[in-house]
Amino acid sequence: MDKTFASPAAALEGLLFDGMTIMSGGFGLSGNPESLIPEVRKAGVGNLTVISNNAGADGFGLWMLLESRQITKMISSYVGENKLFEQQYLSGELELELNPQGTLAERIRAGGAGIPAFYTKTGVGTVVAEGKPVETFEGEDYVRETWLRADLAIIKAWRADHAGNLMFRKTARNFNPNMATAAKVTVAEVEEIVPNGTFDPDCVHTPGIYVDRVVISTINEKRIEKRTTRPRENV
Q1: Is 91 exposed, middle or buried, given 0-12, 13-18 or 19+ CB atoms closer than 10 A?
Q2: Nearest Cα to 188, choosing from 65, 16, 2, 8?
Q3: Which of 13, 119, 171, 215 is the most exposed place for a label (fewest CB within 10 A)?
Q4: Can you name one GO molecular function term for this protein (predicted)?
Q5: Are 199 and 168 a contacting pair, CB within 8 Å?
Q6: Is 0.85 topped by the overall pTM?
Q7: What is the pLDDT of residue 235?
Q8: Average pLDDT, stretch 46-69?
Q9: DSSP character at residue 38
Q10: CB burial class (10 A; 0-12, 13-18, 19+) of residue 205?
């Protein structure tokens, strides 16, 4: 079995269409599918709903799709310092469904597990719970949240074999494995492709059954979103 494709553009061929929902992995600038996002932009598809922890940073990641006005709705947990995201939301140009971060992760996991709804205490009594059913369990109120699923998941991993089994590196794992399970089609860009049988099965983070296409990354910038330093102590 060989799920590899020659280029990011080839890996997305035939998958993109107007009005689709895309899950995009990453947390801040760690684990972003930075080679696949530019190809979505080049394809010119619009009216996109994008599910991602955040929308990149100025000039990087999903910011590219905001800048080209291809995204009409974001389902996220962090707006952060993305000024373009903020401007488009405040102007009414961009719809935002804001989630507590753990709730977002669990909604994606539920989508992959086939669980249409679950209850959580997070958000009870806040705007997060507006319009959602609230029930009481053992004397405590819980708000009902629903699953998230997508037409396409674009994710980034460290290594893959030709069958699509994935390994992630440290914090770049973040939302990527859950998203791989919750979309109709999953495309993974990776830094290295190895022969089938290379991985110890216990070291596989995402089994290939969840991955449809694999491609070598063409962009691996690994940017530092916010560098924090301190003066060197006198010695």
Answers
A1: exposed
A2: 8
A3: 171
A4: CoA-transferase activity
A5: no
A6: yes
A7: 64
A8: 94
A9: H
A10: middle
Answer for the pair 156, 181: CB distance below 8 angstroms, yes or no: no
Structure tokens at 44: 């010119």
User: Residue 132 has which token pair?
Assistant: 């959602």
Cα separation, 137 vs 119, in Å, equals 10
Report domain extents, the chain: 4-216
Which residues, other chains included, contact 186 with Cβ-Cβ below 8 Å and sequence gap of 6+?
152, 153, 155, 179, 180, 210, 211, 212, 213
Phi-psi region of 106 (alpha: psi -120 to 50; beta: other; left: phi over 0): alpha
Question: Per CATH, which fold does 4-216 belong to?
Answer: Glutaconate Coenzyme A-transferase (3.40.1080)
Q: How many residues does the chain have?
A: 235
pLDDT, one tens digit per residue, over 84-99 is 999 999 999 999 999 9
**Residue whose structure tokens are 């290379």:** 198
Other Cβ atoms closer than 10 A to 169: 14
For the record, the structure tokens of 141 come out as: 């109120």
